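thoughts on these C-alpha coordinates:
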Amino acid sequence: MEGSKTNGSENFKISPADMLFGRAVDLDRGIFTSFEEQTLSSPVPLSSTTSKMLKIQSDLMRIHRKILIEGDELRLQDNDTEFTEFSNGSYVLLEPVTGPKDRLHTRRTGPYLISSSSNNNYTLENLVSKKQLRVHINRIVPFVFDPNRTDPQKVASHDVDEFHVEMILSHRGRFTNKRDLEFKVRWTGFDETFDTWEPWKNLRDVTQLHDYLRLINLPNEIPKAHRTPS
Protein backbone atom coordinates (compact mmCIF):
# COMPACT_ATOMS: atom_id res chain seq x y z
CA MET A 1 0.00 0.00 0.00
CA GLU A 2 1.06 3.61 -0.40
CA GLY A 3 1.76 5.76 2.60
CA SER A 4 3.55 8.94 3.47
CA LYS A 5 5.84 10.20 6.16
CA THR A 6 4.27 12.29 8.81
CA ASN A 7 6.01 15.39 7.51
CA GLY A 8 4.53 14.77 3.99
CA SER A 9 7.83 15.42 2.29
CA GLU A 10 8.36 11.95 0.85
CA ASN A 11 6.12 9.00 -0.29
CA PHE A 12 7.08 5.35 0.10
CA LYS A 13 5.51 1.89 -0.55
CA ILE A 14 5.15 -0.47 2.43
CA SER A 15 2.57 -2.93 3.75
CA PRO A 16 1.24 -2.91 7.31
CA ALA A 17 2.93 -6.28 7.93
CA ASP A 18 6.26 -4.81 6.78
CA MET A 19 5.81 -1.96 9.20
CA LEU A 20 5.23 -4.40 12.09
CA PHE A 21 7.54 -7.32 11.22
CA GLY A 22 9.90 -5.95 8.62
CA ARG A 23 11.01 -8.67 6.17
CA ALA A 24 10.68 -11.50 8.70
CA VAL A 25 7.30 -12.50 7.17
CA ASP A 26 7.05 -13.16 3.43
CA LEU A 27 3.44 -12.61 2.35
CA ASP A 28 4.09 -13.35 -1.32
CA ARG A 29 4.21 -17.13 -1.14
CA GLY A 30 3.27 -17.57 -4.80
CA ILE A 31 0.18 -19.76 -4.16
CA PHE A 32 -1.78 -18.09 -6.94
CA THR A 33 1.16 -16.47 -8.72
CA SER A 34 4.16 -17.71 -10.66
CA PHE A 35 6.43 -17.63 -7.60
CA GLU A 36 8.51 -20.80 -7.30
CA GLU A 37 9.13 -22.40 -3.93
CA GLN A 38 12.62 -23.84 -3.71
CA THR A 39 12.84 -27.40 -2.36
CA LEU A 40 15.70 -29.82 -1.93
CA SER A 41 14.74 -31.65 -5.12
CA SER A 42 13.53 -29.17 -7.74
CA PRO A 43 11.55 -25.95 -7.90
CA VAL A 44 7.75 -26.60 -7.83
CA PRO A 45 5.41 -23.72 -8.66
CA LEU A 46 2.69 -23.69 -6.02
CA SER A 47 0.32 -21.95 -8.43
CA SER A 48 0.68 -24.89 -10.83
CA THR A 49 -0.10 -27.40 -8.07
CA THR A 50 -3.17 -25.43 -7.00
CA SER A 51 -4.34 -25.22 -10.60
CA LYS A 52 -4.04 -29.00 -10.99
CA MET A 53 -5.97 -29.61 -7.75
CA LEU A 54 -8.78 -27.31 -8.87
CA LYS A 55 -8.95 -29.05 -12.25
CA ILE A 56 -9.09 -32.50 -10.62
CA GLN A 57 -11.88 -31.30 -8.33
CA SER A 58 -13.81 -29.93 -11.31
CA ASP A 59 -13.36 -33.19 -13.25
CA LEU A 60 -14.53 -35.29 -10.29
CA MET A 61 -17.65 -33.12 -9.84
CA ARG A 62 -18.45 -33.39 -13.54
CA ILE A 63 -18.07 -37.19 -13.52
CA HIS A 64 -20.15 -37.51 -10.35
CA ARG A 65 -22.91 -35.36 -11.84
CA LYS A 66 -22.92 -37.50 -14.99
CA ILE A 67 -23.21 -40.72 -12.95
CA LEU A 68 -26.15 -39.31 -10.95
CA ILE A 69 -28.00 -38.25 -14.09
CA GLU A 70 -27.46 -41.63 -15.77
CA GLY A 71 -28.64 -43.44 -12.61
CA ASP A 72 -31.81 -41.34 -12.42
CA GLU A 73 -32.57 -42.04 -16.07
CA LEU A 74 -32.19 -45.81 -15.52
CA ARG A 75 -34.48 -45.74 -12.48
CA LEU A 76 -37.11 -43.82 -14.41
CA GLN A 77 -36.96 -46.39 -17.19
CA ASP A 78 -37.36 -49.27 -14.73
CA ASN A 79 -40.25 -47.63 -12.84
CA ASP A 80 -42.67 -46.44 -15.47
CA THR A 81 -45.67 -45.08 -13.54
CA GLU A 82 -47.93 -44.75 -16.59
CA PHE A 83 -50.23 -47.76 -16.16
CA THR A 84 -53.14 -48.15 -18.53
CA GLU A 85 -54.48 -51.37 -17.00
CA PHE A 86 -53.97 -53.75 -14.10
CA SER A 87 -54.26 -57.53 -14.20
CA ASN A 88 -56.59 -59.51 -11.95
CA GLY A 89 -54.74 -60.88 -8.93
CA SER A 90 -52.29 -57.98 -8.76
CA TYR A 91 -51.93 -55.66 -5.78
CA VAL A 92 -52.57 -51.92 -5.80
CA LEU A 93 -52.69 -48.95 -3.44
CA LEU A 94 -55.77 -46.74 -3.22
CA GLU A 95 -55.84 -42.95 -3.22
CA PRO A 96 -58.58 -41.96 -0.72
CA VAL A 97 -61.06 -39.28 -1.72
CA THR A 98 -60.87 -37.65 1.71
CA GLY A 99 -57.06 -37.47 1.86
CA PRO A 100 -54.81 -38.67 4.70
CA LYS A 101 -56.35 -39.67 8.04
CA ASP A 102 -53.57 -38.09 10.11
CA ARG A 103 -49.84 -37.46 10.08
CA LEU A 104 -49.01 -41.07 11.00
CA HIS A 105 -50.81 -42.55 8.00
CA THR A 106 -49.72 -42.50 4.40
CA ARG A 107 -52.05 -40.88 1.91
CA ARG A 108 -52.51 -44.11 -0.04
CA THR A 109 -54.07 -47.11 1.68
CA GLY A 110 -53.77 -50.80 1.07
CA PRO A 111 -52.59 -52.87 -0.55
CA TYR A 112 -55.76 -54.22 -2.16
CA LEU A 113 -56.19 -57.24 -4.39
CA ILE A 114 -57.74 -56.70 -7.82
CA SER A 115 -60.48 -59.29 -8.26
CA SER A 116 -62.10 -58.08 -11.49
CA SER A 117 -62.26 -55.17 -13.91
CA SER A 118 -64.47 -53.63 -16.57
CA ASN A 119 -63.10 -50.91 -18.82
CA ASN A 120 -61.46 -48.43 -16.42
CA ASN A 121 -63.33 -49.58 -13.30
CA TYR A 122 -61.80 -52.11 -10.92
CA THR A 123 -63.14 -54.22 -8.08
CA LEU A 124 -60.70 -54.27 -5.16
CA GLU A 125 -60.72 -56.71 -2.25
CA ASN A 126 -59.74 -55.44 1.20
CA LEU A 127 -57.17 -57.96 2.45
CA VAL A 128 -58.24 -57.48 6.06
CA SER A 129 -62.05 -57.27 5.97
CA LYS A 130 -62.44 -59.15 2.64
CA LYS A 131 -64.96 -56.52 1.59
CA GLN A 132 -64.95 -55.35 -2.01
CA LEU A 133 -65.20 -51.90 -3.46
CA ARG A 134 -65.45 -50.48 -6.95
CA VAL A 135 -63.05 -47.71 -7.98
CA HIS A 136 -61.86 -45.92 -11.10
CA ILE A 137 -58.36 -46.53 -12.42
CA ASN A 138 -57.29 -42.95 -11.68
CA ARG A 139 -57.48 -43.71 -7.93
CA ILE A 140 -55.12 -46.70 -7.88
CA VAL A 141 -51.38 -47.17 -8.32
CA PRO A 142 -49.36 -50.42 -8.41
CA PHE A 143 -48.10 -51.87 -5.13
CA VAL A 144 -44.52 -52.87 -5.95
CA PHE A 145 -42.96 -55.37 -3.54
CA ASP A 146 -40.63 -58.34 -3.27
CA PRO A 147 -42.82 -61.44 -2.69
CA ASN A 148 -39.89 -63.18 -0.99
CA ARG A 149 -39.68 -60.49 1.69
CA THR A 150 -43.07 -58.76 1.88
CA ASP A 151 -46.51 -60.14 2.75
CA PRO A 152 -49.26 -57.84 1.38
CA GLN A 153 -51.66 -59.18 4.04
CA LYS A 154 -49.41 -57.95 6.86
CA VAL A 155 -48.88 -54.60 5.18
CA ALA A 156 -52.65 -54.15 4.85
CA SER A 157 -53.14 -55.08 8.52
CA HIS A 158 -50.63 -52.46 9.63
CA ASP A 159 -52.39 -49.90 7.45
CA VAL A 160 -55.57 -50.23 9.50
CA ASP A 161 -53.67 -50.35 12.81
CA GLU A 162 -54.82 -53.92 13.47
CA PHE A 163 -52.90 -56.45 15.54
CA HIS A 164 -52.75 -60.02 14.31
CA VAL A 165 -55.21 -62.37 15.97
CA GLU A 166 -53.62 -65.70 16.77
CA MET A 167 -56.79 -67.44 17.97
CA ILE A 168 -60.14 -67.01 19.70
CA LEU A 169 -60.14 -68.74 23.09
CA SER A 170 -63.73 -68.40 24.29
CA HIS A 171 -66.78 -66.17 24.24
CA ARG A 172 -69.32 -64.69 26.59
CA GLY A 173 -72.81 -63.43 25.93
CA ARG A 174 -75.52 -64.70 23.60
CA PHE A 175 -75.44 -64.92 19.82
CA THR A 176 -79.02 -63.70 19.74
CA ASN A 177 -77.80 -60.37 21.09
CA LYS A 178 -74.52 -59.65 19.32
CA ARG A 179 -74.25 -56.21 20.90
CA ASP A 180 -73.24 -57.87 24.17
CA LEU A 181 -71.34 -60.74 22.55
CA GLU A 182 -67.58 -60.74 23.24
CA PHE A 183 -64.67 -63.03 22.42
CA LYS A 184 -61.43 -63.64 24.26
CA VAL A 185 -58.52 -62.99 21.88
CA ARG A 186 -54.95 -64.28 21.97
CA TRP A 187 -52.73 -61.90 19.99
CA THR A 188 -49.85 -63.08 17.83
CA GLY A 189 -46.52 -62.46 19.55
CA PHE A 190 -48.10 -61.92 23.01
CA ASP A 191 -48.69 -64.32 25.89
CA GLU A 192 -51.89 -64.87 27.91
CA THR A 193 -51.32 -61.78 30.06
CA PHE A 194 -52.22 -59.67 27.03
CA ASP A 195 -55.45 -61.52 26.17
CA THR A 196 -58.39 -59.15 25.69
CA TRP A 197 -62.16 -59.35 25.32
CA GLU A 198 -63.26 -57.91 21.98
CA PRO A 199 -66.80 -57.22 20.73
CA TRP A 200 -68.38 -59.06 17.81
CA LYS A 201 -68.23 -56.01 15.52
CA ASN A 202 -64.43 -55.88 15.80
CA LEU A 203 -63.93 -59.53 14.89
CA ARG A 204 -66.76 -60.50 12.56
CA ASP A 205 -64.47 -60.31 9.49
CA VAL A 206 -61.49 -62.07 11.10
CA THR A 207 -60.66 -65.56 9.85
CA GLN A 208 -59.71 -66.82 13.33
CA LEU A 209 -63.23 -66.03 14.57
CA HIS A 210 -64.73 -68.06 11.74
CA ASP A 211 -62.47 -70.98 12.69
CA TYR A 212 -63.64 -70.67 16.29
CA LEU A 213 -67.33 -70.69 15.27
CA ARG A 214 -66.78 -73.85 13.26
CA LEU A 215 -64.97 -75.40 16.23
CA ILE A 216 -67.96 -74.81 18.55
CA ASN A 217 -70.38 -76.05 15.86
CA LEU A 218 -71.85 -72.64 15.05
CA PRO A 219 -70.86 -72.20 11.38
CA ASN A 220 -74.18 -70.51 10.64
CA GLU A 221 -73.06 -67.57 12.78
CA ILE A 222 -70.29 -66.78 10.32
CA PRO A 223 -71.28 -63.67 8.33
CA LYS A 224 -72.70 -64.62 4.95
CA ALA A 225 -69.96 -62.76 3.09
CA HIS A 226 -67.37 -65.18 4.55
CA ARG A 227 -69.22 -68.47 4.30
CA THR A 228 -67.82 -71.12 2.00
CA PRO A 229 -70.31 -71.98 -0.76
CA SER A 230 -71.69 -75.47 -0.28
About this structure: Residues 63 and 69 are 10 Å apart (CA to CA). The first strand starts at residue 2 and ends at 4. Residues 91-156 form a domain with the SH3 type barrels. fold (CATH 2.30.30).
